[in-house]
Amino acid sequence: MWTNGVFRRLLPFIAAALLSLPVVAVAQTWAELTPMQQEALAPLAKEWNALPEKRQQHYLKVANHYPKLTPVQKQRLHERLEHWVKLTPEQRKRAREKYQAFSKVPPEKREQVKKMVREQQALKAASSVPPTLAK
Amino acid sequence: MKDTLNTETVRQMLNRSSAKLDYPAQEKLRGAREKALMRYDARAAAPAFAWAGALGWADHGAHRSHYFWASVVLLAALLFSGASYWQQMNEHDSSDEVDIAILTDELPIDVYVD
Prior knowledge:
The structure holds two protein chains of two kinds. In chain A, 68% of the residues lie in helices and 0% in strands. Chain A is an all-alpha fold. Chain A has one domain.
């Protein structure tokens, strides 16, 4: 009957492990975040407390990458985060799929696409400059 | 035949030919044997679980099978929750990487957003 004995020995550990799982993911208010996390997620400050726990955890993980970013990347993150968080889960899922598919494209082709997008953006920026600033 | 059963009467009964026993006596024998086996089982298992008794799992022989099945269910629950938790963690990890890449990449997110 050793299997029964093993089960009984393991029972307290199993119960403790089961009980400790939910503790790993607990909602955090904006005020509870570290200064680094607040800086990384600054564009989300207003809606942070209303975000579901699961998404808070997700963005906290994103924030962990923040110190490793270059100043340009930090700026991009701040500019895009607000837009990103307002997308529907399906839109974000699609965007991730597209990004992953795009990263599998050969580098020369990827460069071509990047160049094309840059050109388009330059055109768009030129045409959307408000008349007062377009002197 | 006497109604009371003890080891001596059991021994005496066993010594006789079983064919000579009437049905009630055979039943009593069977019952006594099962009881003895159950008690033996409980005693044999007791030392291994002695410490668990302190946590409320006192060794009641008759409830042993309940503990066994409770343990099986608990272990299954742990495996399930562990597996789903691990899966969730992994899913999140990979989407974190992709998200940070999309949010800091050279191309604007409009390229990827429908």
